Amino acid sequence: MAASKAIRYTLLLRPFQRKYQDDVVLPIYIPSPTSRQRLIIWVISVVLFLGLVYICWPSDPVLKIERMKLNRIKVHTLPRLAVDISMLVTVKVHNGDVYSMNYKSLDVAVGYRGKKLGHVKSEDGHVRAKGSSYVDARLEFTGIRVLSDVVYFLEDLAKGTVPFDTSTEIEGYLGLLFFSFPMEANLRCEVLVNIANQAIERQKCRRKG
Questions:
Q1: Is 123 helix (H, G, I), strand (E, B) or coil?
Q2: Alpha-carbon distance 38 to 30, whole Å?
Q3: What gap in Å lies between CA 97 and CA 129, rounded to an integer?
């Protein structure tokens, strides 16, 4: 009987070696902006800055004659021809700024055919940012005795419309936190008032100065 040969297999174990032992870890690469990108960023920054300045730059308020109402008209024939006029003028003050506005005075003068009849000055007031305020001014004109003016006025009354000249001035300041900016505005208007419905049929305005 033939002797069997034992075959021995020997497993040779090699020590574990790191496959990537020689790898080098590099930081994340962020490319630097090119000259064109820097220019675009600069232009956008300038545009945003100019837009902010435009929005925050203080401006004068906008004035408008909103209403003129003749409350009373009285004609005197003795001792001479004269007219008493009582009227109510409503002025709209619009503040278009991002600051609130405080005005010290609002002066409204009314004339007829180039001659000043009189004026009235209102008390101080406040208008919020991007808001509007309505100011009523009551004017009393007594004893208008210039014959030519009275005759023209009576003719206009007969026609149903009376042209008036108005001059409106406002002074005050715009304020935000601890900052304040002085402001003033003025307006001249030619206003045509309908006697029947007490409405303004037409007005042509321009800023003085």
A1: coil
A2: 15
A3: 6
